[in-house]
Design goal:
CATH architecture: 3-Layer(aba) Sandwich
Number of strands: 7
CATH superfamily: NAD(P)-binding Rossmann-like Domain
CATH class: Alpha Beta
Number of domains: 1
Helix content: 40-55%
Strand order of the largest sheet: 3-2-1-4-5-6-7
Bound molecules: nicotinamide-adenine-dinucleotide
Radius of gyration: 18 Å
Number of helices: 8
Order of helices and strands: EHEHEHEHEHEHHEH
Oligomer: single chain
Distance between the termini: 45 Å
Amino acid sequence: MVTLSQFSLEGQVALITGAGRGIGFAFARALSQAGAHVLINDLNEDTARAACAQLIAEGGQASPAVFDVTDFDKLDGIVDDLVATHGRLDILMNNAGILIRAPIEDHPMRDFCRVIDINLNAVYAMARACARPMKAQKRGRIINTGSVMSISSRPGVISYTASKHGVLGLTRGLAAELGPDNITVNAIGPGYILTEMNRHVLGTAFETSISDRTPMARWAAPEELGGTAVFLASDAASFVTGQILMVDGGLTSNSLLVESANLGASS
Ligand SMILES: NC(=O)c1ccc[n+]([C@@H]2O[C@H](COP(=O)([O-])OP(=O)(O)OC[C@H]3O[C@@H](n4cnc5c(N)ncnc54)[C@H](O)[C@@H]3O)[C@@H](O)[C@H]2O)c1
């Protein structure tokens, strides 16, 4: 029988990286509304505190967790401290990420490595740190933020594409290894979402071209990802693991939409 209580996260503790704004904040808000105590990670203390204040004002439980996810040597200790303070850790959302748009000649190794460190290496490091308390609890949920670029690409985003394909690989590898400990590992693949990461393309031909190629014919708001996060974090998804769930308005199922229309129905 399916009951609404299967979706409740009451009594659970969730750590969301890069949650001070954008998609991460929307994830944190959704998990908070489902009953979880959310630990808001971000680089900037004021940003993390402001995000917590907003969720607390809305009736939720939220605490800041200020650190850089690429401080790899410190992550085990940081997670241990969080578990000691909050008593448990049920859900990890690996969401912090950056995008550098540049053609190959303007994308030096330093930038490539920075993107891979934040978007991919930190996902492994955080999962590794959080798997220990989750194994001890014999239950856990790890949810990684992928992208449509986990399964596709376009020019100018080589490192981002490599990192997000890697996130899908990590999701499958971690799921295979952690399943016996009752830890599920999944990814969410957002399409084009209106956040700071994309603000500079608003009003450009690129913005319109994405809407033209998306069956839902528009970009999404971050809040439209929240329900998927709650589902994957909840008991309703107890046998879902190793998957990427695209929340992209149909973009990746229909990426040839414009070209096909131009070629006519016989193609
Ligand atoms: N916006 C989109 O259209 C879109 C689409 C697909 C996937 N994504 C992914 O969603 C995630 C969030 O993107 P967004 O659009 O909300 O971006 P954003 O830039 O609005 O927010 C990213 C947050 O991550 C934080 N962050 C960056 N580096 C960090 C670090 N080293 N340690 C801790 N926090 C760090 C930033 O301070 C910021 O608050 C990213 O992984 C991104 O790749 C975004």
